[in-house]
Write a structure and sequence with these properties.
Elements lengths: L4 E3 L12 E4 L6 H4 L3 H9 L8 E2 L3 E4 L4 E4 L3 E6 L4 E5 L12 E10 L2 E5 L6 E8 L15 E8 L7 E4 L24 E2 L4 E4 L2 H7 L5 H8 L4 E6 L3 E6 L2 H13 L5 H20 L1
């Protein structure tokens, strides 16, 4: 039988997440994720804030039994602002899922499509018109080695996944992103120019995407001006005003994976002080 290891857990009937809830494959999480009968009644009556939850990686919903079960071993994560639940697990292999935001490297052009290496089981396909405002006469011309930030729009285990550089729907799924023509270089998705790209673990990538990530918060408080783009496929792109700062940020991000919050903030302060001191000399 599957068991759930929970530290400082709230009573199951409360539906609340404990500070640390560790789940195993097969665990029934229905009482935590799905609303209770009272919440369902409020939803039908049209009360505000009662949206259906979103399930991320590591969770599976069964329409037949109306239950949610874990498919991965890891920590159960909840983002209240979007009512999103997911299992944070440091898996070794990336498997594309619809809605994933990934970084891909152009490998070749195949007719109307580009083949991208997203470090998954199969290359991803990107149509040459899958850019905001792109037309047959006015579209990006990509070359092998170009780095793109895109989102997965189709994912099937038996077929190559397809990605797009367009904002989905009204932009709500992309954090309220607005549509920008690909020529303005202000779009949410598209080609990433300059900077440095590096591979990181899938678990660290998920941590960096959390709004309260400690290392990114510490780097911002240190007064560093930089851009960062994180893909759920274990790729990170960093661009800053100086190569020294780019190396500093990449080092801090990679080291943060095995540190506590206090250690991370201390490491960032020390790195910033060392780099600024060497640059002033």
């Amino acid at each position: 039988m599957a068991a759930t290891a929970t530290a400082l857990a709230a009573p199951p009937s409360s539906g609340a997440l404990a500070p640390l809830t560790v789940v195993l494959p097969g665990d029934d999480l229905t009482h935590i994720i799905l609303p209770s009968d009272d919440a369902e009644a409020k939803t039908k009556s049209g009360s505000k804030g009662s949206r259906p939850p979103k399930l991320g990686p590591g969770l599976q919903y069964s329409a037949q039994s109306k239950s949610v079960r874990a498919t991965l071993a890891g920590r159960l994560y909840h983002r209240p602002s979007t009512r999103t639940y997911a299992v944070l697990a440091n898996t070794r292999r990336y498997v594309p899922r619809v809605g994933d935001r990934v970084l891909g490297i152009v490998e070749e052009s195949a007719g109307e499509y580009y083949r991208l290496n997203t470090f998954g089981p199969h290359p991803a396909l990107l149509h040459n018109l899958s850019f905001e405002g792109a037309t047959k006469r006015n579209r990006p011309i990509l070359h092998p080695g170009s780095l793109l930030y895109c989102r997965v729009i189709t994912a099937n285990g038996d077929m190559d996944p397809e990605v797009s550089c367009k904002v989905g729907g009204d932009g709500a799924a992309d954090g309220g992103a607005k549509r920008r023509d690909w020529m303005t270089d202000e779009g949410t998705y598209g080609e990433l120019k300059g900077g440095t790209a590096a591979r990181i673990s899938l678990g660290l990538a998920r941590e960096l995407l959390k709004p309260t990530n400690t290392v990114l918060d510490a780097l911002g408080r240190a007064g560093l001006a930089f851009e960062i783009c994180v893909g759920t496929n274990g790729m990170v792109w960093v661009h800053s005003e100086a190569p020294e700062y780019t190396v500093l940020i990449c080092t801090a991000v990679k080291n943060s994976e095995i540190m506590t919050e206090e250690q991370i903030r201390g490491m960032v302060k020390q790195l910033v002080a060392t780099v600024r001191s060497s640059m002033d000399e």
